[in-house]
Predict the structure.
Amino acid sequence: MARLLVTALALMLPLAAGAHGECALEKSEHVYSNTPNGALKAYVFSPVGQPAKPRAAVVIFHGGGWVAGEPPWAFWLVDRYACKGMTVVVAQYRLSDQKTASPAEASDDAMAAIKWTRESAAQFHLDRNRIASLGWSAGAHLAASAAVFANDKAQRPDLLAFVSPALSVVNDKHFRALFPPEVSISDFSPAQHVKPGLPPAIIVTGRTDTVTPLAEVSKFHERMLEAGNVSVLKVFDGVGHLFTPAGEPDDRMPKPDLVIQAQAYAAIDAFLIAHGYRDP
């Protein structure tokens, strides 16, 4: 259990390196889903003023090993996207307690958050066909799950951005421990269910990652390409999980190489720009 708690800490807030200066934003708080575990909130940040054309949105899911975390962990990214013409939605989701909620419920929440954002397009002046999703570590698993396991198009994001992502979890002992023994983990592993027609994705990760190993991340990327989908994998040398320098434990509180972290998020920026989501 101690190892699981340490691992959860390693999947936390990736720090605020590279955050932009503040700009004028409209901020609001909404309940996007009422679950047996309580109401789930979406925090919406948009550039001030009516846009000339509908904006793209990005729905962000924080990391935390599926057992820890809260939406404010992702607020450091708000300016980066909202100040460049996007609406940012930071979504709360159910945390695993091995009793009433597991990553399965969190994946359902991710789908619900995407659908709520799409259905709120008129309210927030959004383009219903440009709803991206970004997550790091466990949050990336939820973003990927919304794309792979969506029951309908409304639940599926239109573009994916993953940081140190948990995309193949069949060999993840921590993930396994969050489910009853009889549950098939493969049923909740995005890499094992890649199919044609998934949204374009960019993955940024460290070569020496011990929490979400490159070999597991690569399975998703390779299967995306085999299925004819767009997938870009950017591997950064000399760093592990959440860009922790190689040689330092990367399963604890993140201590990212700030230069490499900035390069990784710049790669995501370029991908968003290339696909018409974010202003240059």
